[in-house]
Design a protein that fits this description.
single chain; alpha/beta; 5 domains; six-stranded mixed β-sheet
């Protein structure tokens, strides 16, 4: 033995179940199921290839009958029999350990966990260290000095910090927490009503289970106190059941577990017999075909000696390594769950697998108002179920037995909050809020992956991110349409009335497709260099936005009512002026009637007819006519502006206000090409900023009594990014010195001193600064400034002459877009520009302007998202955890806080936001505190 032996212990029994449910069905050349064997083989090959220890062993459960079932017959008694496809794989996995020349150890009467605990203690007594290859929560009590764990599928280490995060206590107190809360998976009774948070709080307060039980009679009268007293013996029994034995007689001494090289010929022969040729290749054991030929030749010789012919070799199995493999499992055979026992089996299966897809069915599209009708789970491609909860059925198709909603969610909750099980959703925020409304706090559901955001993080702008589109694109499968379930038009029925059998086929398929998409898309995050963006920004933002949507923002209903009445009155007054300019009355809201008056009756030039033959009267057409000096288009534009504000905001907000007088917008996470969030129902990001009406609408967004709103707004963030990415020394210097960037630009471009500069010159420089970001043309700039296009062109030319680096940057970005089809933000986000190769010059130039702007707008979006992810934790750490983040509007964040904490929260938000990214120029955040949004902004 070496001076410091390192023993690696593989939880063989635990890994078998996880691999079986994580990988799609596979068969050996002889037709035997081998997906768990394949997963186990890959894991073992990796261990040997990386040579992680001086000693190695795989531990197995010998049988279900152990000393625990002797003292408590109900222990694990409810667990279902292993699936038919898994049973033949137990023996094959033991064969795998022999083929790799690794000791496989089991002992009747003891669980593999007890053997692991005893070997871990033994190696520590010898001065060595131990790594346990498992994610089983029951083994986490062993973590400590010299003993750590490694998740074999996720390849993530589990140390004391990870254990404490999961249980709320250090590893040495895990058994006390487990004894209090029990474990329905293993039938450990625990104390009824005591969950993880309560259990950890009690142990942190009293130290041990026994201390908690002794203190119970003196506790304040409550249901918790009564349960602790009534079920004290059950808790003590539970402690015996969850505590691992560390004195099991070792079937093999530690000294005999030295890591040994396998017999390559024997291993190659076994791998080939299983069809695992890719493993052969990865292990560098020569041409897989050669190994197969050796086996075939040997079989031929044996057959000849016995007078038999040799059949052709069977094909190797399809491995779970790519999209094509996931297509092999059929989208059928889904199970309807109607009993608690059946649901518990699925929950246990998901926990054993370590990951599952989850989807909810509801009676509406607003997750804050919709009721859950059922949910589906998928634990492997082709293995999914649906749990109907509130289906109504019909006389022709009665619903049949359904689980009580509360009971079903209580059974589901341990899976959702289990930190060792990855929950996969498509558009996770929606399902999390649905589950939150149903009674499971969304913040407790972790860890969570979102296939929509996994795709969006690497393909924004390339295609849509809906499940149906992703399925067709990556799985070559078209999911069942919703309309096929409910019908359309007048014949549409609520989903609750869809026959449960049909609902199962539809809902379970959604979970199945989501899981398959995860298998296909998640590995590409690394190859597309989007893993950090997803893991550090998009993924954690889901819970942040869910909390913001759930909280909402308070509005002053009386002020909105006054505004609506005022807009109505002003529109009435405008109508008379419009009728006078038109020469007659007409329906102002009718584009057809307006077009006839403008172009048929008044004979104005510049009109264009649409495909249906009607005149176009959109805002661009009316603005062109207004610019020509025509009165009617000006009046109609003003009327439309008020009509839009009234319908979109004052009237709509009154309808969408909750009984608590709060409005809950929905943030769309995967719509824009640049990574910016968008807002809907209602859209709070398009309220006009610089108009009187927009200001009045913002005044209606208020803080409740005793509280204040805080606005924290990045100052000129896109210009700062331009100075950074284009490396413009003059602009960088201006930002570093805190100068007025527009005055500095005017001074540089027009060659005039900053001192005494008139407002018009500064305004022109400002228009150029922001126009350049969006690739503005001479025509567009001239129109904006009210000057001829030729004069505007001279301004742009002068700008580029003074800042040649900006033109170089723009040309470089356009070339990148043409070469790659996308551009990158400073933080690595891909923004695809599909129109960059358009034959139409107009469309191509528009795409070029998109490409120029995307890294800047997208970079700004990345920065504020990074800040949003960091802020909740930072505010909590600063003792300001009661502050609520309410809205994100482009470069601005809005908070609601207690009046006494407003200054402190504003200062902390400013600090975190300004530190969200390190640029060559400083990020500056301006904050304001007020009773309403308009005054805070």
């Amino acid at each position: 033995m070496t001076d410091t032996p390192h023993l690696v212990l593989v939880d063989g029994s635990g890994f078998i179940f996880r691999a079986f449910h994580a990988l799609p069905p596979m068969t050996s050349p002889e037709g035997v199921p081998v997906n768990a064997v394949y997963g186990f083989t890959n894991m073992l090959a990796r261990l040997l290839r990386e040579h992680v220890g001086t000693h190695l062993a795989v531990l197995f459960d010998a049988s279900r009958q152990t000393f625990r079932s002797d003292i408590y017959p109900e222990y694990k008694a409810h667990r279902p029999e292993p699936p038919e496809d898994l049973r033949p794989q137990f023996g094959l996995i033991r064969d795998a350990t022999q083929a790799f020349n690794v000791p496989g150890i089991e002992l009747p009467g003891w669980e593999a966990d007890d053997l692991i605990a005893s070997y871990a203690v033994a190696i520590r007594k010898m001065g060595g260290t131990c790594t346990i290859i498992s994610s089983d929560k029951d083994l986490m009590q062993l973590v400590g000095p010299g003993v750590c764990m490694l998740d074999p599928i996720k390849q993530t280490p589990i140390g004391p910090a990870e254990v404490e995060k999961k249980f709320g206590v250090p590893p040495e107190k895990v058994v006390d927490v487990q004894a209090l809360m029990g474990d329905p998976t293993d039938n450990v009774p625990g104390i009824p009503g005591i969950g993880p948070k309560t259990a950890s709080a009690l142990i942190n307060e009293f130290g041990t289970l026994e201390n908690v039980l002794n203190a119970a009679p003196d506790m304040k009268k409550s249901k918790k106190r009564d349960m602790l007293i009534e079920h004290a013996q059950a808790a003590r029994l539970s402690l015996q059941l969850v505590t691992l034995a560390t004195d099991v007689p070792l079937p093999m001494p530690v000294e005999e577990l030295t890591t040994r090289e396998p017999d390559k010929l024997q291993l190659a022969d076994w791998l080939d017999s299983m069809g695992f040729r890719s493993v052969l290749s990865r292990m560098g054991m020569g041409n897989p075909a050669g190994a197969h030929a050796h086996r075939a030749a040997r079989a031929s010789a044996h057959a000849s000696a016995n007078g038999h012919s040799t059949p052709a070799a069977a094909a190797s199995p399809t491995h779970a390594t790519g999209p094509a493999d996931l297509l092999s499992a059929p989208y059928e055979g889904y199970e309807t769950i109607r009993t608690a026992e059946a649901l518990q089996k699925w929950v246990s299966t998901a926990q054993e697998a370590g990951l599952c897809a989850v989807d909810t069915e509801t009676d509406g599209l607003d997750p804050l108002a919709a009721n859950i009708l059922g949910f589906s789970l998928a634990t492997a491609p082709g293995k999914a179920c649906y749990v109907p909860l509130r289906h109504e059925g019909t006389l022709e198709a009665p619903t049949g037995e359904q689980l009580d909603t509360a009971q079903a969610l209580d059974l589901l909750r341990p899976l959702l909050v289990d930190a060792s099980v990855l929950k996969i959703f498509q558009n996770a925020k929606f399902d999390l809020l649905v589950l939150d409304r149903a009674g499971i706090d969304h913040a407790t559901i972790a860890p969570v992956d979102d296939t929509m955001l996994i795709s969006y993080s690497q393909s924004a702008g390339l295609h849509g991110q809906g499940m149906d589109e992703l399925s067709a694109l990556h799985l070559n499968h078209t999911p069942i349409p919703y309309d096929a379930m409910t019908g359309t038009g007048r014949n549409r029925i609520p989903f609750a009335q869809v026959p449960v059998e049909k609902a199962t086929t539809y809902a379970a398929e959604d979970a199945d497709v989501t899981l398959r998409l995860w298998h296909v898309l998640h590995p590409t995050l690394r190859t597309n260099k989007a893993l950090a963006l997803y893991e550090q920004v998009e993924r954690p933002l889901v819970q942040v936005l869910a909390s913001m949507e759930k909280c909402g923002i308070a509005v002053d209903r009386a002020e909105l009512t006054r505004l609506s009445a005022d807009f109505e009155s002003r529109m009435k007054n405008m109508e008379q002026g419009i009728y006078s300019a038109a020469g007659r009355e007409f329906n102002i809201a009718s584009p057809r009637q307006l077009g006839e008056i403008l172009f048929d009756e008044m004979g104005l030039k510049g009109g264009k007819r649409g495909k249906a033959g009607a005149w176009s009267t959109d805002s661009s057409v009316l603005q062109d006519l207004a610019d020509q000096g025509h009165d009617l288009p000006v009046r109609v534009l003003e009327w439309r502006q008020l009509a839009k504000l009234k319908s979109t905001y004052t009237d709509s907000l009154l309808k969408q206000t909750s009984k608590e007088s709060r409005v809950h917008t929905s943030f769309q996470m995967a719509i824009t090409t640049t990574g910016r969030l968008s807002s809907s129902d209602p859209n709070l990001q398009n309220i006009p900023v610089r108009t009187e009406e927009g200001t009045r609408i913002r005044q209606a967004f208020v803080a409740p009594a005793g509280r204040r709103l805080i606005s924290a707004d990045y100052s000129q963030i896109e210009l700062r990014l331009l100075a950074d990415v284009a490396n413009i020394p003059t602009l960088r210097e201006a930002f570093e010195l805190g100068q007025d960037i527009h005055a500095r630009t005017a001074s540089e471009v027009f060659n005039i001193p900053i001192e005494g500069m008139d407002a018009l010159t500064r305004r022109r420089a400002k228009a150029i600064n922001f126009g350049i970001i969006y690739g503005i043309s001479a025509f567009g700039l001239g129109k904006q400034l009210g000057i001829p296009a030729g004069e505007a062109r001279s301004y742009i030319d002068a700008y580029f002459a003074r800042y040649p680096g900006i033109r170089d940057y723009m040309e470089r970005i356009k070339e990148e877009a043409r070469a790659n089809g996308y551009v990158l933000t400073p933080f690595g986000r891909r923004c695809y520009v599909p129109g960059i190769h358009e034959k139409s010059a107009v469309r191509r130039q528009y795409a070029e302007r998109q490409a120029i702007n995307a890294p800047l707008q997208g970079g700004a979006a990345d920065i504020i998202k990074r800040a949003m992810v960091r802020l909740p934790h930072a505010l909590t750490a600063a003792g300001l955890g009661e502050a609520r983040m309410l809205l994100q509007v482009h470069d601005e964040l809005l908070f609601e806080v207690e009046e006494a904490q407003a200054e402190a929260v504003a200062a902390e938000a400013k600090k975190i936001m300004e530190a969200a990214a390190q640029l060559s120029v400083p990020l500056v955040v301006e904050t304001g505190i007020a009773q309403n949004w308009a005054e805070a902004h």
